[in-house]
Amino acid sequence: MEARLTKMGYTLSDTQWKDAIDVDLNKLPGGKAQAKQTRQMITGMIEAQKKAMKKPDAKPTPSRRQARRQARRQARRQARRPVDK
């Protein structure tokens, strides 16, 4: 995309960084506790990913969508099987 914009004559003249979220935790009831809990949750998720990457034969955890697809496929396969009497 950058190459196409340059080809069209666009040039970068300025860069501005803007906060997506600006929250005063002191004014928000329970804000500090909620921020601490969110940080701990994210840190835990990152550590779990690092640990999973260190395992030599680790398979990636399927996403929710993939897990639902697998469950539907398995249910269809079981529905097709003849019932033993």
Shape: extended
Number of strands: 0
| Measured distance between first and last alpha carbons | 63 Å
- Number of helices in the DSSP assignment: 3
Radius of gyration computed on alpha carbons: 24 Å
Reconstruct the topology from this structure.
Layout: H1 2-7, H2 31-54, H3 64-80
Question: What do you see in this structure?
Answer:
The chain has 85 residues and is mainly α. It is 55% helix and 0% strand. It has helices spanning 2-7, 31-54, 64-80. The termini are far apart.
How would you sum up this structure in a few lines?
This protein is mainly α and 85 residues long. The protein contains three helices and no strands. The protein is extended.
List keywords for this structure.
85 residues; mainly alpha; extended
